[in-house]
Design brief:
CATH superfamily of the largest domain: MFS general substrate transporter like domains
Oligomer: single chain
Number of strands: 0
Order of helices and strands: HHHHHHHHHHHH
Strand content: under 5%
Helix content: over 70%
């Protein structure tokens, strides 16, 4: 199995559960007896764990295959912990484990891609995250509509991620650089020249803003559409999935959409914030998703590095 396919599968698999927290939270909070705003506690724990994990992973010298397999298994364990969590604080432990696993996977894939993938392959790798995030809300909406509770839904996803972790473990040698890739890199003019990196503050600021808007809309969008604007749960689930689908489209078309996406970002944010009718808010998520996908492409190329 080629390394690019493994990378795309890894990003797609971790995006499946990563894009569903907002849809499952209304049911989860009732089980824990906590207010809607308690979701913010989980997000703080999860994001902090992911950032620390990413920074730590970048300093270790472990093969990509082992890192991806370990990170995926950690995500599977996190989902299992969340499926059986008796309280919000145990759920927070699962969220931390998920953040650590995601940080390991994200850093390992980006580091490998920077060394061995071309620009087009990197684009497809990151687009796979958008595809997984699109499938996740649709899958959860179908499972919830079919009577499967949030605990069983998390348990099912834990089994899927555990199976994929086994696949990544078996195929861990598939990440080794092929002679063709090595030769192409050596023959490329200026291949040995190190790319100039932007200041760390610029990269961190970009990452914080992009990730904050992207995740905020994806996680809180469902709650805002249902509890805030009275939209039916099934319709809201499809709307959130469409948001991720537009982000996927924005990443696929990349450069062509970048300029338009930059202009669409303020429009999408303005519509989402100011909309008082769900019929306006739901389409605004589509505009925002396309804008974020395109802006991601533009800024990641400018900064010389990308974060999913």
């Amino acid at each position: 199995m080629p390394a690019l396919l493994l990378a795309c599968l890894a990003y797609l698999s971790v995006a499946l559960p990563g894009s569903t927290l907002g849809l499952l939270w209304p049911s989860m909070r009732l089980s824990f007896g906590v207010p809607v705003g308690a979701l913010g506690i989980l997000l703080v724990f999860g994001i902090t764990a992911s950032v620390i994990s990413s920074a730590a992973t970048g300093r270790v010298r472990v093969r990509t295959g082992l890192l991806v397999a370990s990170g995926t298994m950690l995500v599977a364990v996190a989902l299992a912990v969340e499926a059986f969590a008796p309280s919000l604080w145990v759920m927070a432990i699962g969220t931390v484990l998920f953040g650590v696993g995601f940080g390991v996977i994200d850093t390992a894939l980006n580091a490998h891609a920077a060394r061995h993938f071309g620009a087009r392959d990197i684009n497809w790798m990151h687009a796979s995250y958008g595809l997984g995030a699109t499938i996740g809300p649709l899958l959860v909406t179908a499972l919830l509509s079919g009577g499967l509770g949030w605990r069983r839904t998390y348990g099912l996803m834990a089994l899927v991620l555990a199976a994929l972790a086994c696949v990544f473990t078996v195929r861990r040698q598939g990440w080794r650089e092929s002679p063709l890739v090595r030769r192409a890199a050596e023959d490329k003019p200026g291949a040995a020249t190190a790319r100039r990196k932007p200041p760390a503050a610029v990269t961190l600021t970009f990452t914080a803003v992009e990730t904050g808007i992207e995740s905020g809309a994806g996680i809180w969008g469902y709650i805002f559409l249902t509890a805030g604007r009275g939209l039916a749960p099934e319709t809201a689930g499809v709307a959130v999935s469409a948001y991720w689908a537009m982000m996927f489209a924005g990443r696929v078309v990349q450069v062509a959409a970048s300029a338009a996406g930059s202009a669409a970002l303020p429009a999408g944010l303005g519509l989402a914030i100011g909309a008082v009718d769900a019929r306006i808010l739901a389409p605004s998520l589509l505009v925002l998703g396309l804008a974020m996908g395109a802006l991601y492409a533009l800024l990641s190329h400018w900064s010389g590095q990308a974060v999913a």
